Amino acid sequence: MNEEDNFPIILLCEVAGVTRSAYYKWVDKKKTDLEVENEQIMEDLILLYNGFKGVYGYRVLKLYLDRIYEKKINHKRVHRLMKVAGLKSITRRKKKRYGKSKPEHIAENILKRNFKADKANEKWVTDITEFKYGNKKAYLSAILDLYDNSIVSYVVSHSNNNQLVFQTLDKALIKSPGATPLLHSDRGFQYTSNGFKQKIKAANITQSMSRAGNCLDNAPIESFFGKLKVEKYYLEGNYQTFKELKDAIDEYIHFYNHTRLQKKLSGLSPIEYRYQYQLTA
């Protein structure tokens, strides 16, 4: 209420027990800089959340906000603002585990969950994951570089066989000529085959394998497959043809390598991080 409602301000202040100066200070109260910034951050959070179709939680969105505002924004603040805005990321599905065939060759677990690499092409991890389209299945084989989490090479195929992993390795070696990394995998039949053993020996690559039934020994590539499925495959889904599925995988891997920011990489994408390494090497 005010004088326009036929109540003198001085009378209202006397009744309320406050001074006129305090009343006018309350009327003229402006939002603090923090409140204004929180509102702007929330607007940007909503734009980012919608732009990425709701697949990212506060940890990833914080990295994009850091870049937008050119400063570090506390992750707890981002989490709180997302709760206020009612923004929730999509929950990742658990991966099904499949039985393994009898291996021909078992390599020692040299990697031993030491997922840190000091340079590019020092340590690669690889695996295969399954997708469905229409009433059929397709398989993605990929190699990830532990230095920058980039996908070095990948192949999408109708068949889960030895040729799939051979092609993936060939593409990686063509892309990175002269590379002689430690190559870690699980004990899938493709990696334990004599043919694969001969192939990596010819390339002067050291082979490492996870312990039996221990997916955490190959966690980085498992994590990548999880991101791909949650952020692309499950989200869009309903792929009817092999081409539709492959195009979606191609699109996501390009996005992942060039655009998707990662906390481990100082808020950079894998390719940005590798480029930074090349400048300082």
TrEMBL record:
Extract the GO molecular function terms from the UniProt entry. nucleic acid binding
Pfam families listed in its UniProt record:
HTH_21 (PF13276), rve (PF00665), rve_2 (PF13333)
Source taxon at top rank: Bacteria
GO annotation (BP), single = DNA integration
Q: Which SUPFAM superfamilies match?
A: Ribonuclease H-like
Which residue ranges does the record assign to the Integrase catalytic domain? 115-278
InterPro entries to which the protein is assigned, alphabetical: HTH-like_dom (IPR025948), Integrase_cat-core (IPR001584), RNaseH-like_sf (IPR012337), RNaseH_sf (IPR036397), Transpos_IS3 (IPR048020), Transposase_IS3/IS150/IS904 (IPR050900)
Role according to the record: Involved in the transposition of the insertion sequence.
Q: Which NCBIfam families match?
A: transpos_IS3
Please give the name of this protein.
Answer: IS3 family transposase
